């Protein structure tokens, strides 16, 4: 029984010794490159008091979302820092043959001096160095240290929406040293600079290469000093295709639909009113839905001008219907008054009794009045021409015609060429069929060129 246990025990001890040896080598190997008097809180010495130069490069992996309501964007990236640590002692045995660098465990980074950059305009920053996941430390033969880590940050961006939905947002990222002034540490962009993942695509935006990179010095009041700062500007250009399909094309069709009311007869009041009111409510609903996509800014946006123009055209069509309806009502009232003011002529054949008239009698509201007609007299009017005696207080016959002409001329007139009566409200409807499309076309031809010119100037 003991003979069967001994081989297993020996194998276990050999494995344990190898594991301890490997762990010992793993932990002792980094200590070789650090001198005994190394203090990680002190920055590396430099010549003639010059600041330590730290080079940065960023590789943008993904931009998760651009939140216009909170005015920020989320970015995942790899950030690399490179500086020279002249206090390191690098024995040759730590490098493999043919290599000029060695990659050490991320925990070794805690034993080194390292710069303390932070994102000045970041709301939330999650750096991989906190847990040492997705990070690495690389040492080069020339005593250069490179630290790379994956980072997720929410960057605040002051956005402008005057040209919405053709706005171009320029969003900067500020990287600044927190503890060391520019006399001790200087940040600088490396040759790689900022690189964006070529496969990165956003839903509503087009993101290209960074607009520009800057190296500045920012004065911090709370720390009373100038600190080295790196700035990278991202350019987010909104794609207009979505809004062309969802906003501009439907609203233009609604405006065109309101023009159909000019071809409807004025007697079709329910159909005409329903069409115009439906168009107006449709535009209001569209405008309300679009307002939820952007924050309630205090200035007028380009989309507001478009929607206001469309609503004004539909409202003008509704106002045109009210005007022509009032004119038609006035025309009908004037026509009825004119017909009522004219006397009603009734031919009557009388029997020639005592006190009777001749052959013609005129009847008005005051009763029947007759005049004796002598058919044999050459001076008497013919039997076919009635003679009307106006009632007491009634206007003369020639004054009735003048009043009729004065009242109808306000809403109707007779065409001198054709001799036909032309009604004002009908002429307004015919004119609106041409004027409204022409004005809308003028509005479109002025809106888009101005918007495109302003967008080009802002870029």
Automatic annotation (TrEMBL):
Signal sequence span is 1-22
Q: Where are the transmembrane segments?
A: 248-266, 273-294, 306-327, 434-453
> Which key words are in the record?
Cell membrane, Ion channel, Ion transport, Membrane, Receptor, Signal, Transmembrane, Transmembrane helix, Transport
**Neurotransmitter-gated ion-channel transmembrane domain segment(s):** 248-338
Q: State where the protein is found.
A: Cell membrane; Membrane
Is Transcription regulation there in the keyword field? no
PROSITE patterns linked to this entry: NEUROTR_ION_CHANNEL
InterPro entries (alphabetical): GABAA/Glycine_rcpt, Neur_chan_lig-bd, Neur_chan_lig-bd_sf, Neur_channel, Neuro-gated_channel_TM_sf, Neuro_actylchol_rec, Neurotrans-gated_channel_TM, Neurotransmitter_ion_chnl_CS
- Give every Neurotransmitter-gated ion-channel ligand-binding domain span: 34-239
Q: Which domain of life is it from?
A: Eukaryota
> Is this entry keyworded Transport?
yes
Q: How does it sit in the membrane?
A: Multi-pass membrane protein
Extract the ranges annotated as region (Disordered).
374-393
- Record family assignment: Belongs to the ligand-gated ion channel (TC 1.A.9) family.
Q: Know the name of this protein? A: Glycine receptor subunit alpha-1
Question: What is the organism of origin for this protein?
Answer: Bicyclus anynana (Squinting bush brown butterfly)
The record's gene field reads LOC112048639
């Amino acid at each position: 029984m003991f003979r069967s246990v001994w081989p297993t025990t020996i194998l276990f001890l050999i494995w344990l010794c190898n594991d301890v040896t490997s762990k010992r080598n793993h932990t002792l190997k980094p200590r070789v490159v650090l001198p005994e008097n190394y203090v990680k809180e002190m920055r590396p010495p430099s010549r003639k008091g010059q600041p330590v130069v730290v080079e940065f490069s960023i590789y943008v992996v993904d931009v998760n979302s651009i939140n216009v309501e909170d005015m920020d964007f989320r970015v995942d990236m790899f950030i690399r820092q490179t500086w020279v640590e002249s206090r390191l002692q690098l024995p040759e045995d730590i490098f493999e043959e043919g290599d000029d660098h060695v990659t050490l465990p991320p925990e070794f980074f805690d034993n080194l001096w390292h710069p303390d950059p932070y994102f000045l305009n970041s709301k939330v920053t999650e750096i991989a160095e906190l847990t040492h996941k997705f990070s690495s430390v690389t040492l080069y033969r020339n005593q250069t240290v490179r630290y790379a880590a994956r980072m997720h940050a929410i960057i605040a961006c002051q956005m402008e929406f005057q040209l919405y939905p053709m706005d171009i947002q320029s969003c900067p990222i500020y990287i600044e040293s927190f503890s060391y002034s520019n006399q001790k540490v200087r940040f600088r962009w490396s040759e790689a600079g900022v690189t964006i993942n070529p496969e990165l695509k956003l839903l509503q935006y087009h993101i290209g290469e960074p607009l520009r990179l800057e190296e500045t010095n920012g004065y911090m009041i709370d720390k009373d000093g100038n600190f080295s700062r790196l700035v990278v500007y991202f350019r987010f250009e909104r794609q207009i295709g979505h809004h062309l399909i969802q906003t501009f094309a439907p609203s233009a069709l609604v405006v065109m639909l309101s023009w159909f009311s000019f071809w409807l007869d004025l007697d079709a009041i329910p159909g005409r009113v329903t069409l115009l009111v439906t168009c107006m409510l449709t535009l209001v609903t569209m405008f309300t839905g679009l307002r939820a996509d952007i924050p309630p800014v205090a200035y007028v946006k380009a989309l507001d001008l478009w929607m206001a123009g469309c609503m004004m055209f539909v409202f003008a069509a509704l106002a045109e219907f009210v005007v022509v309806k009032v004119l038609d009502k006035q025309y009908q009232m004037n026509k009825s008054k004119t017909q009522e003011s004219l006397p009603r002529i009734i031919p009557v054949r009388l029997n020639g009794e005592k006190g009777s008239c001749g052959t013609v009698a005129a009847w008005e509201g005051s009763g029947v009045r007759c005049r004796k007609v002598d058919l044999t007299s050459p001076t008497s009017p013919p039997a076919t021409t009635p003679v009307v005696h106006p009632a007491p207080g009634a206007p003369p016959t020639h004054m009735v015609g003048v009043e009729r002409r004065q009242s109808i001329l306000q809403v109707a007139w007779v065409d001198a060429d054709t001799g036909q009566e032309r009604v004002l409200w009908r002429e307004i409807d015919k004119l609106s069929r041409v004027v409204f499309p022409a004005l809308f076309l003028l509005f479109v031809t002025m809106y888009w060129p101005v918007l495109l010119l302003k967008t080009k100037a802002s870029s």
